[in-house]
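Data deposition worksheet. Section B asks for the primary sequence of the deposited chain exactly as it was used as input, without tags or linkers unless they were present during the calculation. Section C holds the resulting structure in token form. Section D is free text for depositor observations; keep each observation to a single sentence. Incomplete worksheets are returned to the depositor.
Section A, Depositor: J.P.
Section B:
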Amino acid sequence: MKNMKMVDAIREALREEMLHDEDVFLLGEALGGVQGGSFRVTKGLDEEFGKARVVDTAISEAAIGGVAVGAAAYGMRPVVEIMFGSLMPLVADEIHNQAGTLHYVSGGKINCPCVIRTCNWMRIISGPHHCGNIDALWVNSPGIKAVAPSTPYDAKGLLKTAIRDNDPVIFLEYSPLYTKTGDVPEEEYFVPIGKADIKREGKDVTIICYATTVGDALESAELMEKEGVSVEVLDLRTIIPYDKEAIRASVEKTGRVVIAYEGYKTGGVGSEIAAFIAEECIDSLIAPVLRVACKDVPNPSNSILIENISIGKREVIDAIRRVME
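Section C:
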């Protein structure tokens, strides 16, 4: 094992897959040179693999997506970087209407093996254009898979799996997690898409979460243990197709559920999970399902307002106490 930051784990996954398969190439704005991508994820890869495989593009998300879909249709494996999640609507046509449907409309003759990396964060003072979260859009896009790791181990393993997948995969990164450290195996490994992970066992209440809210959930679980409440933390890792069996098993064990996600509450990822639990696990519930999510307003450019619309450990603990009443 080696200890590394998530940003380095993602870069290592990209490098390993580019060495493994010459059809893998990177595509995005300012990926090479000093910049190395918006958050330095691709730094140094242009020097190793050249500009033909680390392609700096014009500032046009739609064009980037179009090139990626076309290249994937011809058998290549592009890995796209869209700087911020709030810019993903600019490439939504290429993802939702093209990449996600290509295998279907071709009668199974054409695959679209592309990965679209992007970075989310709601808890930052950047205004509505450079922060935000539209993860729920991909849950409602047939043919698309979407993953959101919370640890360096999961980030590397999921990205390697995503690059080798024959379907389009949205790889959701959250900027506060780039500097998070964790153990990563020296040997090659893969994390399967569609499999959740129990980050902490518990028996009284389940927190279903992903990405940044996993840390909030684990800290909340530690504090609630002092109050005699045993909290299970279920990290989705994949938001679509999410792990229904893992959710069902945890709900059957605890009977109480809090869903925490750093996105808008109405119509969010947590809404889909709550609907699934209501439809298929209702007999196991001994309390209503609660969602902990951000308020349904555009991201402000004011620190006081940010505190009022975003979520954290305090909100998760409050929800746990409510379901335990």
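Section D:
The chain has two domains: 2-184, 197-323.
The mean pLDDT is 95.
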